Design the sequence.
């Protein structure tokens, strides 16, 4: 019987020589990606895991058994009841954003499993598609049991089917990254930037936080998913390694594009969780510290490996590390009924911690929290509307997120007229990305333009109920309903 | 006619869409934006409306000031105050 190493490459590197069709017909450029190179250029494609299908099945079976065992032990309703309400909001935020985006990724991986340019790439992508299906199913299964207890968990499945503003922004990102991208763009955007650059490391960081707050189930789920991601993310570097020899400019352009696109949503998901939704006693460090230690350093190493430059907006990105998620959180807190999870008001201890972690910027944000706190003191517990906005919020025409770029002193929003329409962007990178591919983006209408076009109601309550799909029993509120022991009444 | 404007208040964290009538004075833009953001930033006196870095006359009508739908305006403390 042949040993593994004797048959493995025969199975993984099985490419056909075409006789009655051309290679370009089998791998058309519109779906295989540009630059189109003959297979000879891709024939040395390889990645370090080199997993066979039987090995994949055995490993995944063991992982599934392990997740199921943890669920049996600590993944029951009573276990969740013991968790801090603010942390449950972190869970709801991730539970909504994750699973159906993973399902989009199944499509992206399957496209690479057919149109990737080397058989080893296609095989790895096929296992990646099975991974993504698993990442869809695990959170859906785990959170389903919680819906009967807390209807906000229903957004685990509902989120991407709604027109909530966060869902519109997430769809705008993931539909392009995961559903629309050809295998080359998918490999750079998803496998290299999003997975290798952000989520692979994020899962490690969030798993540590989950452990510290006592959420063993989320910790286990993240850990299990991360091991899959670490494997199929290797598609990205393997594609880039060959592509930079032929078209470095395309690689750099796609890295620049997708790092910024990924960063904005990532900073909201992870920045909210690490700096606001994790109880103070469970925090491992600030989001800024996590970014510096894990993401910046590792991403720089990844760029250096391929001789790629930092994205052209790097200085703006570094500046945003100390501000962007704070800008969005205080904005979102005062529009919390527009989301599906509750949000904590940072108290004196949290604000002191944030001031210590963000010594150069927190002074810009503290007065806003003081004002909101005063409004709660005036109104008393339960009176949400007194610290809640009612005026429509403006959104970026590229990322579809709120216009929260820059600082309270200088918002970096930029307006431009393209064709006969005015557009607004939260930042210079979003503007440049739009103008690089206007035909791709210009038809998409943000929430404000939908309101102005009569597609969505202008009245906030009607917008929430009829368009965002939120009802009063599950739209976001203050996590303590304003009844904080430290707050007092005026 | 109602004119929707992208409004940015100094000290605030996000852009808002405010609606003003084109025959209202520019000062109404400052008032409306401060009111809309008041749960985060307390309203102040002496705030002026700026478009492309130019201070707009608070007494001119919105239409006369050249504010068209979805223009960006900034409301900040008047220079020199």
Sequence:
């Amino acid at each position: 019987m042949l040993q593994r190493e004797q048959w493995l490459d025969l199975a993984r590197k099985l490419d056909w020589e075409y006789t009655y069709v051309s290679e370009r017909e089998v791998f058309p450029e519109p779906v295989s990606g540009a630059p189109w190179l003959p297979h000879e250029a891709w024939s040395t494609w390889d990645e370090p895991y080199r997993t066979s299908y039987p090995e994949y099945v055995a490993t995944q079976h063991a992982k599934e058994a392990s997740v199921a065992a943890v669920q049996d032990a600590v993944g029951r309703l009573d276990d969740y009841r013991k968790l801090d309400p603010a942390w449950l909001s972190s869970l709801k935020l991730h539970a909504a954003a994750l699973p159906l985006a993973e399902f989009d990724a199944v499509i992206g991986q399957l496209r690479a499993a057919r149109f990737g340019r080397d058989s080893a790439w296609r095989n790895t992508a096929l296992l990646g598609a099975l991974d993504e299906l698993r990442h869809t199913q695990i959170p859906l299964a785990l959170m389903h049991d919680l819906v009967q207890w807390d209807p906000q968990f229903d957004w685990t499945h509902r989120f991407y089917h709604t027109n909530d503003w966060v869902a519109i922004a997430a769809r705008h990102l993931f539909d392009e990254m995961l559903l629309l991208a050809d295998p080359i763009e998918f490999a750079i955007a998803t496998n290299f930037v999003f997975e290798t650059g952000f989520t692979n490391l994020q899962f490690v960081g969030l798993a540590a936080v989950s452990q510290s707050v006592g959420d063993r189930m989320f910790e286990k789920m993240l850990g299990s998913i991360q091991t899959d991601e670490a494997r199929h993310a290797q598609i990205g570097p393997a594609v880039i390694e060959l592509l930079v020899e032929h078209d470095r400019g395309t690689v750099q352009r796609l890295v620049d594009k997708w790092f910024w696109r990924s960063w904005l949503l990532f900073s909201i998901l992870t920045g909210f969780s690490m700096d606001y939704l994790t109880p103070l006693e469970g925090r491992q460090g600030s989001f800024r510290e996590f970014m510096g230690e894990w993401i910046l350093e590792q991403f720089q190493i990844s760029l250096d490996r391929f001789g790629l430059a930092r994205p052209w907006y790097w200085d703006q990105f570094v500046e945003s590390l100390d501000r962007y998620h704070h800008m969005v959180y205080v904005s979102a807190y005062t529009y919390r009924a527009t989301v599906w999870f509750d949000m904590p008001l940072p108290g004196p201890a949290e604000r002191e911690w944030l001031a210590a972690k963000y010594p150069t910027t927190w002074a810009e944000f503290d007065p806003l929290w003081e004002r909101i706190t005063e409004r709660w003191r005036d109104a008393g517990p339960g009176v949400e509307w007194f610290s809640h906005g009612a005026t429509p919020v403006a959104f970026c025409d590229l990322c579809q997120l709120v216009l929260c770029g820059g600082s309270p002193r200088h918002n970096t929003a930029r307006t431009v007229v393209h064709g006969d329409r005015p557009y607004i962007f939260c930042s210079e990178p979003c503007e440049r990305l739009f103008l690089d591919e206007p035909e791709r983006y210009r038809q998409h209408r943000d929430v404000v333009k939908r309101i102005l076009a009569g597609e969505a109601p202008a009245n906030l309550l009607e917008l929430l109920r009829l368009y965002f799909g939120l009802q009063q029993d599950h739209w976001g509120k203050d996590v303590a309903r304003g009844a904080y022991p430290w707050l007092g009444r005026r | 006619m109602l004119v929707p404007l992208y409004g940015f208040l100094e000290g605030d964290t996000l852009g808002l869409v405010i609606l003003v009538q084109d025959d209202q004075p520019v000062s109404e833009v400052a008032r409306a934006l401060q009111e809309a953001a008041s749960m985060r930033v307390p309203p102040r006196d002496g705030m002026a409306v700026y478009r492309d870095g130019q201070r707009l006359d608070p007494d001119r009508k919105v239409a006369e000031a050249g504010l068209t739908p979805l223009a960006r305006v900034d409301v900040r403390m008047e220079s020199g105050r």
User: Anything to note?
Assistant: The interface with chain B takes residues 326-328, 330-331, 334, 365, 367-368, 371-372, 375, 386-394, 402-404, 408-409, 411, 413, 415, 422, 424, 448, 452 of chain A (CB under 8 Å). The mean pLDDT of chain A is 95. Chain A has 24 helices and two strands.
